[in-house]
Amino acid sequence: MFPDAISSGTPPVESPTSIDAHRQREVKWMALLPIVPPSQARKNKKVKRLLLDGVPSSVRYLVWCHLSDSKARAIPGVYAQLGKRQRVPAFSDIEKDAKTYFPDQTQLHPFDGPLVSLLQAYLNMVPDIQYSSGLTSIAGHLLLLSPEEDAFWIFASMMDAHLRPYFSANTIQLEVDAALLSKAIEANDPAVCKKLYVTFSIPPGAIAKSWFVFSTLFVGALPVDYLHRIWDVFLYEGITLLFRVGLALVQCVRHLLLRATSEEAAMEYLVHPPLACLPSTADAFLNQALMMKLKDDDVRKQRVKMEAQVKRQTQSRTLSTNGSSGMQTASISLPKTS
Fold first, then answer.
1. Is it the case that residue 248 has pLDDT exceeding 70?
2. Who is most buried in 45, 57, 283, 325, counting CB within 10 A?
3. Burial readout 59-98 (b: 16 or more C-beta within 10 A, e: otherwise)
4. pLDDT category, 321, cuts 50, 70, 90?
């Protein structure tokens, strides 16, 4: 994670509201992006400092392109060719979810509009993905900030680097992360852990799936400005930030969880926390997430160890049903380009 911010107790700088400060950050980002190769951006200290200072909305999609290294993945002509393939089975669900999740963004609603087209192309390219409305949520937010083809390659990069296992028929990664998340909640707040997992007997996978799949990257759980601020850092840091955000949300609604009288009420607080329970600004919430008690390196090591353990435990079952014991399939179906 950001060790200097954590160990020193220095919180990320709250985004200044002045126009001058906003323009200064724009200038800094536009000066930095050309000199830091995208493949090195997630290791660069200057990038880290600018992320903590804030990402102006005017350059956010360019920063996301850089952090995801999406330009390196883009193959000219592929997106257009994918759009010519037959409709995927989830086509009607995508069209319906576009209207449900983005009721005010009518440009995303048409069956031949950018949102349906992006997901149609991606699901044709990666046919092993199990469609979920969370995919529509991610793609829609990317399209509100980025040109369509750029949004497609950022989406593909995010999926390949971080999220694709959550939408695979193989559930190993979700099982592992659900177990790690429950351990992190227990370490941070034993009382809440007991209430959720013992009193209400909520399966660890239910909370992880709600945050990581159905409300992918916390879409729906957080206001848009908070969401984008979390994504800024997620694209730098990766999955461990999602654990931190989950812990921060638990902390925000702790008093409600301890008073909850049903599993349904507790899950509602976790998935749709009342705005009054959140810090007053996006940067304040990000700071709260960054300061949660969690050793990122330990999570990464435990993740690898638990993945291997779960694979061994489920190998026979997976081989008999899928013919594969891997965490995810590597099926990619790219069209020929001239």
1. yes
2. 283
3. bbbbbbbbbbbbeeebeeebbebbbeeeebebbebbbebb
4. low
